[in-house]
């Protein structure tokens, strides 16, 4: 298929482009960085520069696509003014989806976020009602980033109601790759008391990319939402024990699939997408939280 990947220069976008190419798809990457004028490498992704908050530019890059993977976004509500985060993320999503609907693109994969229930950036304290968190958990977004991701999912609902497009929204947990495992997760591996705002959950960028490929190739109708998180928690600890130790009875503990389970469940993605995560923090970090030496 001809697949357009927005935000192609980001951590998620780069991994998605490579995974889609490896799966045999023809990929066009889209981002704000200026293109480099060199001879194209055979089998590499095509690249286009575009500001997706501009409807004309969004329509220009989506035309002719068989599928769209929308990863482009400001990923953190704290490094830009709130109105910039909200306007950029929401308008980019609206414009790209509108173009896909108008051009009859059959599949749209929307990269949403684990923050939708209220994780990570709340201005007032937030705890989930229960754990592991799944797709049935109530939605309580507070910050502009989480709000745009929630509204993005609503845009998907509207798109499938008014057209034949099929949409999948993936809610990744905190995305890690070989460059940042030690910095981000090392402190939690060493000490569970370094509380994680998402109940010690995470996802490897390349496992997420595998889920994106499955979503692109899926024939699921309508709009489905999936959490994407590694099945184990950071540190590989007894989840029931650490949840009670640090949160007491404030979070209801639901049945667990494994002792060292993640605080976010990806059972639905494994069941309906056939997604099988292959990577763990243990592939990158030792028990002391420092990076493993790679040969």
From TrEMBL:
InterPro entries: Epimerase_deHydtase, Lipid_A_modif_metabolic_enz, NAD(P)-bd_dom_sf. It comes from the Bacteria. Pfam families: Epimerase (PF01370). Residues 3-219 form the NAD-dependent epimerase/dehydratase domain. PANTHER family: BIFUNCTIONAL POLYMYXIN RESISTANCE PROTEIN ARNA, NAD(P)-BINDING DOMAIN-CONTAINING PROTEIN. This is NAD(P)-dependent oxidoreductase.
């Amino acid at each position: 298929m001809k697949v357009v990947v927005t935000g192609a220069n980001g951590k998620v976008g780069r991994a998605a482009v490579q995974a889609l190419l490896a799966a045999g798809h023809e990929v066009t990457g889209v981002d704000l960085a200026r293109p480099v004028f060199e001879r194209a490498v055979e089998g590499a992704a095509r690249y286009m520069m575009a500001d997706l908050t501009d409807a004309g530019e969004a329509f220009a890059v989506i035309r002719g696509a068989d599928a769209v993977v929308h990863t482009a976004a400001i990923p953190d509500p704290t490094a830009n003014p709130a109105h910039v985060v909200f306007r950029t993320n929401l308008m980019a999503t609206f414009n790209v989806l509108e173009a896909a609907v108008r051009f009859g693109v059959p599949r749209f994969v929307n990269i949403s976020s684990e923050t939708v229930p209220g994780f990570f950036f709340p201005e007032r304290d937030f705890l989930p009602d229960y754990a592991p968190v799944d797709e049935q958990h109530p939605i309580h977004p507070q910050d502009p980033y989480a709000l745009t991701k929630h509204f993005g999912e609503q845009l998907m609902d509207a798109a499938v109601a008014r057209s034949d497009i099929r949409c999948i929204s993936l809610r990744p947990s905190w995305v890690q790759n070989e460059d940042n495992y030690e910095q981000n997760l090392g402190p939690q591996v060493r000490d569970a008391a370094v509380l994680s705002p998402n109940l010690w959950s995470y996802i490897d960028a390349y496992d997420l990319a595998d889920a994106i490929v499955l979503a692109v190739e899926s024939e699921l109708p309508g709009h489905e939402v999936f959490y994407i998180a590694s099945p184990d928690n950071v540190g590989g600890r007894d989840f029931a024990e650490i949840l009670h130790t640090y949160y007491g009875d404030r979070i209801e503990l639901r049945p667990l699939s494994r002792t060292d389970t993640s605080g976010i469940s990806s059972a639905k993605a494994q069941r309906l997408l056939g997604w099988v995560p292959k990577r763990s923090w243990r592939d990158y970090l030792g028990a002391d939280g420092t990076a493993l030496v790679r040969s």
